[in-house]
Amino acid sequence: MSSLPMPALDHLIHLHPSVAAMESSIALYSSLGFLVTRGGNHADLLTTNALIVLPDGVYIELIAFLEYEAEGVDRGGETRQEWQLRREQHWWSGKKEGWIDWCLAGGVADGQVEASNARAQEQAQPLLPTSTTGATSPGLYKSPRAGGRTTLRGDQIKWKVTFPDDALTSYALPFWCEDVTPRSLRVPSLSLEDEGSAQNHTRSPKRSAHPNGALGIHSLLFLFNDDDDEEERFEEAVKAWSLLLPRESQSDSDSDSTFLLSTPSAAEHGSQSRTTSSSAPIKVQARHAQTKAERDWLAQCGGTGALYEVELRLQREGEVDRTASSSSRRLQEAGERFERLRSERERELGLGRMKFWYVA
């Protein structure tokens, strides 16, 4: 394992083709035993979201673009043309529905963005884009910019996000989110006593308030094009990732590399020296597409690197906390049902691939 610090995965972005599709997705995830918390509209009034907060502190963000005439949204005199231009300039504009992005926690105050940019300057100068004047980018990441959201109860939440350089989108690099207001406002923890409430405290990752026993993220799988012409791009992407994340093994092959991430819960409670099945590092795998289905999917995403599959940790049936809900079901059935519904409704909802990994 490399000596780089292990950043924490903050959340995953799951885009839907419409707000109506997001509502259907909320109902689907709820029927599968996930507790879904409605978030609210983002400060730019371009998107709205709902959250699936996991006990390890990572959350899945269900998101959709708001229409110009969205109910309850005051455009403040903004014309449709002005709104359309802002939407087209949005970071996720034009993305195919499903898993579209991943976010790491912090980055600014802890110096991780600055450090990764410095490593890029020192170790990977050829990766950095150049401007029309020939000037080289200062690093992998741009300057942070303000973001925010208003919760349904009226709380004003603020943060700063730091995105990769626009010229590096094919590397599928994560972005960073630095909280200005307390993270507990942005990511409400779920109480075991009241599954529908949002409590401002951190829960133990060993137990789950979700009826299906969901504990957290086990692994992420990113696919890259396997064409000979794209081999250099894949190697560059792996090199860029290695400036941010520790690798699981220095002996990873050129076509299959695995990196490691921490979780917000593990980061808050200190090191992971005492690793349990529910607090182990998240594995992030980057590899070439290997099957026709994977290649076809990647082509639909534009042919560049993209998040293909998310694997969740779940408790076995006997370990599910029965106080969370009386609707607990066998986890195997939940997994099979999700895959069936995902297959049937992927075109309608833009559902990404999800697998379940059962904690022993």
UniProtKB/TrEMBL annotation:
Annotated spans, Disordered: 121-148, 192-212, 248-288
Domain Glyoxalase-like span(s) in chain numbering: 9-236
InterPro entries associated with the record: Glyas_Bleomycin-R_OHBP_Dase, Glyoxalase-like_dom
Record's compositionally biased regions (Polar residues): 121-136, 258-280
Domain of life: Eukaryota
PANTHER family xrefs: BLL2707 PROTEIN, GLYOXALASE-LIKE DOMAIN-CONTAINING PROTEIN
Protein known as: Glyoxalase-like domain-containing protein
Species, as recorded: Pseudomicrostroma glucosiphilum
Highest classification ranks of the organism: Eukaryota, Fungi, Dikarya, Basidiomycota, Ustilaginomycotina
